Amino acid sequence: MRNGHALVLFSGGQDSTTCLAWALQHFAHVETIGFDYGQRHHVELQARQEVLAALRAGFPPWNERLGEDHMIDLAVLGQISDTALTRATAIEMDAAGLPNTFVPGRNLLFFQLAAAVGYRRALHTLVGGMCETDYSGYPDCRDDTLKALQVAVSLGMGRRFTIETPLMWLDKAQTWELARTLGGTALVDTIITLSHTCYLGERGPLHAWGHGCGHCPACALRRTGFERWQAKA
Predict the structure, then answer these.
(1) Is the pLDDT reported for residue 100 higher than 60?
(2) Contact status, residue 22 vs residue 182, Cβ threshold 8 Å
(3) What is the Cα–Cα distance from 213 to 65, expressed in whole angstroms?
């Protein structure tokens, strides 16, 4: 058990659900924070409530540690963004070589707002599901970015904050395995049936790896990671 209490950036997807389970294993008190920024896959906001309810019901020790959920209206981010995550446009690479699913400033804002909430609630560890191994090249998911942000947030708040990224050096197959290690098949099943990853916001049929269109970059990562993980099982 680690010192202090944690605040998890929780979207309701595979990665953030795994990170929430990780935090519940390591901290005596954990709260969650989500953001409504006009995302195209708005269905994730419903999924996150279903995942939270399932974790409370299915994991009594975690339920005792799981505290308040905070939802932040960040509509302004969607208003100033012109991306495939905030507009009904085709997913493609932009002129800078980044996928147009990149929402500039998103994770920077998420952590700054999480720190503001954490400041008043004595939650000085901020946990996010950012990853540099299987990722789309988003600059605000890089370890260097988040280390710099940790310094800036701590200086700006006048209080030490720690940013934890348990998935930073894991590929998606390893993320599935981490979920199994943390919560067994019950957690894996919860992630498959309830969490949401698809950028297009499609639920549709339940695949072996979960709901989604199966073709967008988020679904492709989740699907191939699941298949690699199953092949090693």
Answers:
(1) no
(2) yes
(3) 34
Rounded distance, CA 209 to CA 152, Å?
38
Tokens of 158: 């006048």
All domains of the chain in start order, with CATH: 6-232 (3.40.50.620)
pTM for this entry:
0.92
Residue 92 carries which side chain, given as an amino acid letter? Answer: E
What is the rounded average pLDDT for all residues in the chain? Answer: 91
Q: What digits encode the pLDDT tens for the residues 134-180?
A: 766 788 889 999 999 999 999 999 999 999 999 999 999 999 999 99
Chain centroid to Cα 101, Å, comes to: 15
Q: How far apart are alpha carbons 146 and 95 in whole angstroms?
A: 25
Q: What are phi and psi of 114, to 5 degrees?
A: -60, -40
Token pair recorded at residue 214 = 């199966």
What pLDDT score does 105 carry?
79
DSSP 4-38: S-EEEE--SSHHHHHHHHHHHHH-S-EEEEEEES-
> Please, are residues 23 and 185 in contact by the beta-carbon 8 Å criterion?
no
Reduced to 3 states, what is the DSSP secondary structure of residue 2?
coil
